[in-house]
Amino acid sequence: MERGQLRVYLGAAPGVGKTYAMLAEGQRRAERGTDVVVGYVETYGRPRTEALLEGLEIVPRKTMDYRGATFTELDADAVIARHPQVVLIDELAHTNVPGSADDKRWQDVERVLEAGITVVSTVNVQHLESVNDVVRQITGVPQRETVPDEVVRQAEQVELVDITPEALRRRMAHGNIYPPEKVDAALTHYFRAGNLTALRELALLWLADKVDDQLERYRADHGISGTWEARERVVVALTGGPEGDTLVRRASRIAERTRGADLLAVHVTSSDGLASAAEPANLARQRALVESLGGTYHQVMGDDIPTALLDFARGVNATQLVLGASRRGLVGQLFSRGVGVTTVARSGPIDVHLVTHEEIGRGRRATTREGLTRRRRLAGFLLAATVLPLLTPTLAALRGRLSMPSDILAFLIAVIGVALVGGLYPALAAAMAGFLLLNYYFTPPVHTFAVADADRLSALVAFILAAVAVSTVVDIAARRTHDAARATADAEALSTLAGSVLRGERALDTLLERLRRTYGLTSVTLLERRPGTSLTPDRQRDPGRWHIAAGVGDEPCATPDEGDADIPVGDGLSLVLRGHPLPAAARRVLEAYAAQAAVALRQQRLEEQAEKARPIAEADHARTAVLHAISHDLRTPLAAAKDAVNRLAEPDGARTEADRARLTATATGSLARLDHLLGNLLEVSRLQAGTLGTAPQPLAVEDIVPRALESLGPSDHHVDIRIPDGIPELLADPALVERILVNLVTNARHHSPTGERVLLTAGSHADRVEIRVIDHGLGAHPPHHERTLRPFQRLGAEESHAGAELGLTLARGLAEEMGGTLAPGETPDGGVTMVLSLPTAAPSASHERESPA
């Protein structure tokens, strides 16, 4: 069966008109004769939205019971059984009630699509998984209902329902989105103009990325390789030279001129990985610079650099390419046009910028390609000096038996042997000596350097050419073998370094220890220049100019001059190695380690700063939460009390005694609620400031519980007290224990259904007395129990600023102040059990038992 199509209406925030647009689409399709049904739509009581439901068939929802409450959900099975052409399903990111066939509504939608039914749905940008953390930073509100981006990206159509922040706030103020009692809070918090602007930009950028993906797929499907300038993309080519920083900044300025342009940096390496003039430290620094400017870094392979650059640029649909002007001198440019000129000639519609820089004309740093060691060259010369004098008389004694070609082959074998041992230069010397010996001893007339026969002269010339060619090939092979071995060692070291980065190992000491072991060093020290000091040659050796940022091994270096190798990192850091001299070829790997060490040091210090700032951030979060709470919870009782008092102050008129009593009770209850809230706020402040004093004394549980319940007053929820005999006395402050019990029982009543009893029990275990307050309300799911004890949380609340529920926070703080604990648990038949544990006044073995709850 062919899969159905998915169409999604994307919005930046609630109220932009996604559901309205979805229903309007359904009406249009129904008018065209399409079989359209409504699977699930939330109108939130909006008249204009409800009007669009008229004439559309609605598939009944399924009803589900959960924790004593009734919920309705999309009936995907009923939709599939009805099998319309199009179904309208609202709120794609919705989480289904536990016990449903699928956990998420988008999974229901997947089943409907697999049945061949087209689905039209809605989603807000804050519910997309990839931007969920960004939305939380912007709005301060975590979104627990999310949908994977891939689900929306696979939709055949994604349409943005857009509205300006000002228009959305007007729509909110007119009561077209939320009920009037929620308007002020929404406009003050989530629906601030700045929040809406940021969310709108997120929605636009996300949709732009999807459109870009669709464009790339279209170009790939139709084999279009040319550049389409639908969006500016600036590619900067990096060689690993010092001029790369200038090129990156120049490319960034070019990209900034076109808002929304992409910046990409690319480095081309040779396919064999052996010949490269790139400095790893430069590339690491330039990569960090590109990423700090909002760009991305890429590395490609290719032996023809202009072709590789242009292939990459066309592959990413780049519009502009930034290159550095050639560093070669005038002589070098005479023999080759260079990368820049060649790239310009082949670029086609891509604009190429050749940027001048300070390195022009200084030439490229030649890579050091060591051949054989000096000892092997010397051995080659000694072999040539030994073998040729021995070979000459031996062949002379066999002159009558061997022909001239045989003599030439014998000398050629000797030359090859010398080349294998000593390389090119000993082999060339052996070839010249062999040419002269063959001419003098074996070419008529012998014992002269004259050659009477042209054929023999040709044979001698062929010998010298073959000897030189073979010697050159052998020497090149030896060099390439040496380079390959060195590159393998470097690759292993860099692979280990890259692996540590990918695994998230950023410990600086671990990195330095790995470097020390890799090269067998005595110590590795990362030195940092002290602020305000200059590095003249005489001060380079002054220990007072440096301090050790990190180090491993014995005898750390106090200055760069004390080590066997010094790798500068930027202007203020230097990696100093001690143990033995290192080859120049190892410097590239050392520079990569030095660059990573600088990053690790920076990361370490940022983590330290973040750790120091965490208490400040937490305090700021608490202050923000207090403001949110006060704006909600203080306003409500004040408004109710003010309204009741104002009505009582009006002329009596037709007001009855029952009305006056009701208004008086309203005012009294509101003021009591306000007094309770302010008391909790003050107590929490005293706890946080550490100024709360306690006076512990022995207390009997059966005495303190009734006093706490008396202060609560009447309620629809009766409290059953079940305290067995023999409970030992607890050691605590009586006023604080009473306050804890008041808050726990108040919380249990608040979350219990009307008329439901709250159970209070007590027991003892070892040297602790445990008091349990048990309710049977909806409560919070077990994973969220601990969250209910944080400031400004409510059981089952969706937003952290929903109110100032400080009772449980205060209760835990008071318990801990007296050496006790307060922990939430799950009531077996539904609800939450709060367990207060306090030390006993006089522990006794006879009391080491636990009473049934």
From TrEMBL:
InterPro entries assigned:
HATPase_C_sf, HATPase_dom, His_kinase_dom, HisK_dim/P_dom, HisK_dim/P_sf, Histidine_kinase_KdpD, KdpD_sf, KdpD_TM
Record SMART domains = HATPase_c, HisKA
In terms of one coarse class, where is the protein primarily found?
Answer: membrane
Q: Which residues form the Histidine kinase domain?
A: 629-842
Stretches that traverse the bilayer: 378-398, 410-437, 457-478
Q: List the keywords (alphabetical).
A: ATP-binding, Kinase, Membrane, Nucleotide-binding, Phosphoprotein, Transferase, Transmembrane, Transmembrane helix, Two-component regulatory system
EC number in record:
2.7.13.3
Domain of life, per lineage: Bacteria
Entry membrane topology: Multi-pass membrane protein
UniProt catalytic activity? ATP + protein L-histidine = ADP + protein N-phospho-L-histidine
Tell me the compartments it is located in.
Answer: Cell membrane; Membrane
Q: Which PROSITE patterns match?
A: HIS_KIN
- Which protein is depicted? histidine kinase
Q: Which organism is it from?
A: Streptomyces pratens
